[in-house]
N-carbamoyl-L-amino acid hydrolase (Periconia macrospinosa), 1054 residues
Amino acid sequence: MAWAFPNLGFRFALQRIVAKRRVSPSLTAAGARVAARRGILTCTNKRPLICGDRQQQGLRNDAVVLQKKAFLGSQIRRLHTKEMNEEQLSSLKVDQKRLMEDLHYTCQWGTGEKWGEAPTETGMARLALSDTDKQARDWFVETAKELGCNVTVDAMGNTFAVRPGLNNDKPPTFAGSHLDTQPTGGRYDGILGIHAGIEMLKVLNDNWVETQFPVGVVNWTNEEGARFPMSMSASGVWAGSIPLEVAHNLREVHPGTATMASELSRISYLGNTPCSYTAMPMAAHFELHIEQGPLLEITNKKIGVVKGVQAYKWLTVKVRGRDTHTGTTDLKSRADALLTASKLILHSHKLATANGALASTGILNLKPGSTNTVPGEVTFSLDIRASKDETVAKMIDLVERDFPKIAAGEDIGALNEGCTPGLPLTVSITHDFDSPATYFHQRCIEAVNEAAHATLGPDGKSLVMEMTSGAGHDSVYASKRCPTSMIFVPCRDGVSHNPAEFTKEEDCALGAQVLLQSVLRFDRQRE
Amino acid sequence: MAWAFPNLGFRFALQRIVAKRRVSPSLTAAGARVAARRGILTCTNKRPLICGDRQQQGLRNDAVVLQKKAFLGSQIRRLHTKEMNEEQLSSLKVDQKRLMEDLHYTCQWGTGEKWGEAPTETGMARLALSDTDKQARDWFVETAKELGCNVTVDAMGNTFAVRPGLNNDKPPTFAGSHLDTQPTGGRYDGILGIHAGIEMLKVLNDNWVETQFPVGVVNWTNEEGARFPMSMSASGVWAGSIPLEVAHNLREVHPGTATMASELSRISYLGNTPCSYTAMPMAAHFELHIEQGPLLEITNKKIGVVKGVQAYKWLTVKVRGRDTHTGTTDLKSRADALLTASKLILHSHKLATANGALASTGILNLKPGSTNTVPGEVTFSLDIRASKDETVAKMIDLVERDFPKIAAGEDIGALNEGCTPGLPLTVSITHDFDSPATYFHQRCIEAVNEAAHATLGPDGKSLVMEMTSGAGHDSVYASKRCPTSMIFVPCRDGVSHNPAEFTKEEDCALGAQVLLQSVLRFDRQRE
Ligand SMILES: [Zn+2]
Ligand SMILES: [Zn+2]
């Protein structure tokens, strides 16, 4: 084989590329085009030997072999990342058509609700460790192997596909994300990141690029936490933040009874490799993801360079009043827990506005729950977020200072203007969950920044913005154990976790291009 | 028998008083005292022949016979309501001890949650047509029969106990209420009204009072609507407002499967008499009830003269926004249905304050209901009440004018001060239920007013107040077909529909006294 790697000491043994019949569409079309353009392939006729035409699938695989033979005969032209100049580096381009075809191809497993006319205009319902998740995983493993990767599955089903580099005694640089979705999710959240990783591998193969160190793609298990109720649970175990036992024993949400361990075993993804950053170290983790928010779209940006993830804190607020009859209790004699909760929710929004933070209530329950009974008890969630820990801490202080006063009847921020003073109520606040701000690694952020600007060129400078991720991602846990950054691309109306989640093809490709370039730029700076 | 009634043409045939062994405690103690005081009974020794002592129950029944014999021998002293002067009328007094002993005696059937140390300090859980409701009904029927009443059960299980008067060709004047309770109800709502009716009968018997026309006590079925979900359903059928079939087919609330008809039949209270104001006409309906609100207590009043029942209207408000991720959606890009609902609830309260009305939200549901998702849809109930129909109509107009504007982002009443303007939302409002104001009958209101002032005396003038009932009662339906009024007594902290519902013994007795006096005053004014 032409792909000779001098150092095989690293755990990733070189595996021969065996061109199988079951490859995904467009496997090497772009590669062939690029190779042809560069003169790597000497075509015997003007039509490229390989194209994306599905009818020629049979031909294609032979073509791979042909390509390799050509490569064998021209070892000089092998590209090393370290030796490439900026022009050469930037000329490595993802194939938008292939990327999107692959992505939609795998969305046959777990297809969700239809929202548009085109066959690809449906959502996804691919719950973690379900049969359809297994099908998508199997595709990932096979495709990665076909691309020459070693595939390792760990005890949480995290699947690491590694393409060996010139020097394999150091950990790989990873592109990672997740193939699982929400029950009413879309085709881009997570899935795009994995496919961009696979596309990266294909571009490297197509262009005979040899990286300094290995590069890989990781599919993290149960990122969404939709089926097993703990999001990012498998990257959390990898990082040592969540005990393996806790994650293994997570029971699927009602009405099922399966656990993560039982389902991992059932679908044959309970690997032997320990789930740990020591057993499977990473040199860096880059994640391409849809923004899941509206900022890029609103500001007409194309690429978000993610510097970190917001801090957030989840509180439960319980308001205690007295349930009384709506007809017989005059306004003065009420201790209306819902009216008070309404004031508190409005006030939390005002505090967020004043402090550049976010405050959101997504759950609210009341008792007793009858049209003609003034609720005596209301419990609601309060999700406070800000890019800095200090801002979140300040918001919590303000909430804890103001809420009891408002409940007691004090007029804060003119909330009581025009109201009838009622009886005093009480408030208790519990702290449920605390996620400090994550700050990504400067080297990774720089790699993404350079990659974005290289991709968009000098005219596209204004299309890049640095931003903070509002949501958690596997990159948060990854960043605890290795340099990490993320790349965001816009999604329509900022909608995510919804079947109609959508990112334009050119934006998907742009993001994948920045991911590819980020990984390569990181790789060539490694010592 | 001394109780000779010249006219027996009316449907209520005179029934002989047969003193049975199974009388309730204290049946005739007060009567004996009063009779002794008036010289009706000639005692052979200084100790009254009859007393409330439970050990002497055997004696007591013989004593009733003895009393009657004495009465037989002194027909001159028979008291006719029309002929009584104010002093004689006011000297007819309920026996507080007997009233409360009877009330607590029947609360053995369906005893609920304990809230205090004393054995009587428990709530009630006597759902309509349950086994315990049957036991209480059986007690009611037997006691009424023992007191010389004819008992009629109609097709809704409404039970009419009628004590014949001097002239029985016209309908009786009724005291009415209900023996059923909420699942976590108290000992006074409804129950006090029935017991005050029974006590009225006892006082009339004890004092050999003959009313001009018959007087009775009615126990209405399923007033609470707690088990069969339509409150006041049986008085509604009687009034012709609810079709019998609808009420019969009411299915008990989850998880049961019984209907009102099946349960009426099971407990043997599916009567042959049609449930109708034509089959069982009433000259008037008086109802003693706990206020179920705090106004009497707060203003240090003892008796509420109820002039009518509030108008009310129930709306369902649906707010539609967009559910988005709490972390990734900045405040500007949100269409937060719960934040908007909070503003609407607060605004409805301000409108109520400005218009002397009540506005209450007792139910609120949101979607999708996750801590990190801004709710895209909120549905809440809105209960609007006022003593006048016009006020309710005005409130509805204001709600329908302002709610869509507030949802669209307009700043009404400075609700948006300090808020971040978000995306517009929409509101839809449906009208679910409409209960126009009920105005009670002037003659009945006057009877209650006179009775209250006669009971409390000139020094107690300030202890009486006219008021509007906030809650519905069987008297609302009764008032559609006969002159009606109600008497309210204070309940602790205005609490009702709660095990800890409590009215002082002296207040129960005061209310019962006003009920007795109201019925008698109404009776003697009838032609
Ligand atoms: Zn994701
Ligand atoms: Zn009641």
Q: What stands out?
A: The CA atoms of residues 323 and 376 of chain A lie 4 Å apart. DSSP finds 15 helices and 20 strands in chain A.
